[in-house]
Amino acid sequence: MLSWNCVRILSSSRAALHVKRPIMNRLCVCKKSVTCLSTSLLKKETWHSSMNPRGLGKGTDLTQYINQAKSLMNYSTSQAKLNCWNCKQPLEDKPSFFCVSCKVVQPPEEGTCYFKIMDCDYTFTVDTHKLQRRYLQLQRSLHPDNFSQKSVKEQEYSESQSALVNKAYKTLLKPLSRGLYMLRLEGMHIEEGTESAADSEFLLELLEINEALDEAWTPEEANKIARDTKEKLAELTELIDAALLKGELQAAKALLVQMKYYANIEEKVKEKLSKFM
């Protein structure tokens, strides 16, 4: 007969397997209770497994998974314990900009995901119209001008919250900064001087575009380059979105490097066109 300890271990393992999929799915949508920052606790294959349940378990150690799940639960618990600095009542919303009980502005929660702040799904294809509405809504209530007659602490918190909302909005508004931020949440970075990450054929193509832009003598020539660049950026946006949905982070990183170059060309085109005005 199995000992009582063995029975407990088997029961715990079965329970962990049953909760595995819900925990994975929570990582992909930032509206859930665990903030996006917790996704950086998991490896690439974890994100991929949430998209493909059949891949779950391949190369995944049960003990490692349980430890990761405990880390997420602890992180969630610490967030749930936040109280208002003024009246000490528990804060219901996460992130909390104001206390529901005393209506006092709260300090920013360290490490809160930008997607969570802006009430957006954790996806590369963000609804920018919804993002802008959320930004205006938050700034109307958090702008420091609204707290000029309040205490010094409230003024400081409103300034911090307003600055954080600005940063989150600007980061998520454009595809390049949004994609780079999503990779940072996964522990991946694209450093300055990324020439080594691009192949020679791609760099040659960029060189030709830059030369054509330098030699553009009319607005029509510059606008032609602008249209081509816009089309290329739209194509890269679709490819990056597909790569992220599949959990192919290395592919997404390589595509974001290309997007970074084309975004630079787009800015150069704008500068060129301004000279014709």
Automatic annotation (TrEMBL):
<comment type="function">
    <text>Acts as a co-chaperone in iron-sulfur cluster assembly in mitochondria. Required for incorporation of iron-sulfur clusters into SDHB, the iron-sulfur protein subunit of succinate dehydrogenase that is involved in complex II of the mitochondrial electron transport chain. Recruited to SDHB by interaction with SDHAF1 which first binds SDHB and then recruits the iron-sulfur transfer complex formed by HSC20, HSPA9 and ISCU through direct binding to HSC20. Plays an essential role in hematopoiesis.</text>
</comment>
<comment type="subunit">
    <text>Interacts with ISCU and HSPA9 to form an iron-sulfur transfer complex. Interacts with SDHAF1 (via the first LYR motif); the interaction recruits the iron-sulfur transfer complex composed of HSC20, HSPA9 and ISCU and mediates the incorporation of iron-sulfur clusters into SDHB which also interacts with HSC20. Interacts with the cytoplasmic form of ISCU and with CIA complex member CIAO1 (via LYR motif).</text>
</comment>
<keyword id="KW-0479">Metal-binding</keyword>
<dbReference type="InterPro" id="IPR036869">
    <property type="entry name" value="J_dom_sf"/>
</dbReference>
<comment type="pathway">
    <text>Cofactor biosynthesis; iron-sulfur cluster biosynthesis.</text>
</comment>
<comment type="similarity">
    <text>Belongs to the HscB family.</text>
</comment>
<dbReference type="InterPro" id="IPR009073">
    <property type="entry name" value="HscB_oligo_C"/>
</dbReference>
<dbReference type="InterPro" id="IPR004640">
    <property type="entry name" value="HscB"/>
</dbReference>
<comment type="subunit">
    <text>Homodimer. Interacts with ISCU (cytoplasmic form); this interaction stabilizes the (Fe-S) clusters on ISCU. Interacts with the CIA complex member CIAO1 (via LYR motif).</text>
</comment>
<dbReference type="GO" id="GO:0046872">
    <property type="term" value="F:metal ion binding"/>
</dbReference>
<protein>
    <recommendedName>
        <fullName>Iron-sulfur cluster co-chaperone protein HscB</fullName>
    </recommendedName>
</protein>
<dbReference type="InterPro" id="IPR001623">
    <property type="entry name" value="DnaJ_domain"/>
</dbReference>
<dbReference type="GO" id="GO:0051259">
    <property type="term" value="P:protein complex oligomerization"/>
</dbReference>
<dbReference type="GO" id="GO:0001671">
    <property type="term" value="F:ATPase activator activity"/>
</dbReference>
<dbReference type="InterPro" id="IPR036386">
    <property type="entry name" value="HscB_C_sf"/>
</dbReference>
<keyword id="KW-0496">Mitochondrion</keyword>
<comment type="function">
    <text>Acts as a co-chaperone in iron-sulfur cluster assembly in the cytoplasm. Also mediates complex formation between components of the cytosolic iron-sulfur biogenesis pathway and the CIA targeting complex composed of CIAO1, DIPK1B/FAM69B and MMS19 by binding directly to the scaffold protein ISCU and to CIAO1. This facilitates iron-sulfur cluster insertion into a number of cytoplasmic and nuclear proteins including POLD1, ELP3, DPYD and PPAT.</text>
</comment>
<feature type="domain" description="J">
    <location>
        <begin position="113"/>
        <end position="185"/>
    </location>
</feature>
<keyword id="KW-0963">Cytoplasm</keyword>
<keyword id="KW-0143">Chaperone</keyword>
<dbReference type="Pfam" id="PF07743">
    <property type="entry name" value="HSCB_C"/>
</dbReference>
<dbReference type="GO" id="GO:0051087">
    <property type="term" value="F:protein-folding chaperone binding"/>
</dbReference>
<dbReference type="GO" id="GO:0005739">
    <property type="term" value="C:mitochondrion"/>
</dbReference>
<dbReference type="GO" id="GO:0044571">
    <property type="term" value="P:[2Fe-2S] cluster assembly"/>
</dbReference>
